[in-house]
Amino acid sequence: MLLHGNFPVLIFALTLLGQVHTGKVFGGHEAVPHSRPYMALMEVTNDNHSKQCDGFLLNEDFVMTAAHCQAKSYKILLGVHNFFKQTDVQTLTAGQAFPHEKYNATTFQNDIMLLKLTSKAKFTTSVKPIALADKDDITLPTSCLVSGWGQTNRENNLNSYVLMEVNVTLIHNKISNENNVYCSEGDHGPGGGDSGGPLVCSDGKAYGVVSAGKQSRPYVYKYTKIPDNREWIDNIMKYN
Ligand SMILES: *[C@@H]1O[C@H](CO)[C@@H](O)[C@H](O)[C@H]1NC(C)=O
Ligand SMILES: *[C@@H]1O[C@H](CO)[C@@H](O)[C@H](O)[C@H]1NC(C)=O
Ligand SMILES: *[C@@H]1O[C@H](CO)[C@@H](O)[C@H](O)[C@H]1NC(C)=O
Question: Is the CB of residue 167 below 6 angstroms from any atom belonging to ligand 3?
Answer without folding.
Answer: yes
